[in-house]
Amino acid sequence: MTPRSGPAAAPGRFARLRHNQRVPEPVTRIDDPDDERLGDYRALTDLALRTRFEQPHGLFIAEGHQVIARALRAGYRMRSMLIDAKRADQLAGLAEDAPCYTAGPDVLESVTGFHVHRGALASFHRKELPEPAALLAAVGRLVVLEGINNHTNIGAIFRVAAGLGFDGVLLAPDCADPLYRRSVRVSMGEVFAVPYAYLDPWPGGLYQVREAGFTLHGLSPSRGAVDIGAVGAAERERPALMFGAEGPGLTEAALDACDRTVVIPMHAGVDSLNVAAATAVACWELSQPRPRG
């Protein structure tokens, strides 16, 4: 663990404590970008490096006051927080019993690789993910993803799922990490609210989705796909919507596991939507109890 010593806390930080509330760690000013206590925050824009570092070390990075607060409310345990020194009085209270470091904007940019305009970063411990069977037993509407390796799309899909009443996400092993910083930020912290699991083997394990009582709808224009608006009421009661990567779409093996393929009708010669937009349309449609028309 990183050292927990440092100078006195920012003025007013302790005055906000309620009776029996845990006393937060003191705020520590750091002016050396090579300080080892900032190791969790190095090169945040280097995807390959962060992929090798974050998951094996069981951590993730949250950015911005709102997202950090949502991670805390969801029960994630903070490792440390790094904030712009100018915003110490506003943000340091979020750290509670974790080390809180402040630095000037030049140091923050040197460490992270970008201008930290939201003023706060926090490193959190990851939670153990549920087994697919436990996830399937606990949710009523499911999004299933294959080959979605764009972190922006992953984050947007989680936000869509949370907003439109789909309460679980099942991921193929080749999908991007939902807790990568960009995914967390784009989701506005909804990755903390929607439980998810990785399904392995893929796609062989997809039979579990149907055995759990879901109707598995594959989004694809192939195999005689039906208009998603025409899906009957019975098939809307426990829907699982499966989406593939932009371009290739769902693999043939994944489509073999589906109860049916469905399509969003398009106009003006447009062949498809971005996968996050398609998820929003499809989730809204199958959140309705009856087919249109």
The CATH class label of the largest domain is Alpha Beta
What number of structural domains do the residues give?
2
Question: Rg to the nearest angstrom?
Answer: 22 Å
Structural classification: alpha/beta
Strand order of the largest sheet: 8-7-6-11-9-12-10
- Mean of pLDDT: 91
At the fourth CATH level, what is the homologous superfamily of the largest domain?
SPOUT methyltransferase, trefoil knot domain
The helix count comes to 10
Strand content: 15-25%
Helices and strands, in N-to-C order?
Answer: EHEHEHEHEHEHEHEHEEEHEH
Count of DSSP strands: 12
Q: What best-fitting shape do the alpha-carbon axes yield?
A: elongated
Percent of residues in helices comes to 25-40%
> What is the level-2 CATH architecture name of the largest domain?
3-Layer(aba) Sandwich
Euclidean distance between termini CA atoms: 60 Å
Biggest beta sheet attributes: 7 strands, parallel
Uncertain residue ranges: 1-23
What's the CATH topology name of the largest domain? Answer: Alpha/beta knot
Report on the architecture of this protein.
- Helices cover 26% and strands 18% of the residues.
- With 293 residues, it is of the alpha/beta class.
- It folds into 2 domains: 14-125, Ribosomal protein L30/S12 (60s Ribosomal Protein L30, Chain: A); 132-287, Alpha/beta knot (3-Layer(aba) Sandwich).
- Helix 6 (151-163) runs parallel beside helix 10.
- The longest helix has 13 residues, at 151-163.
- Mean pLDDT is 91; it is low at 1-23.
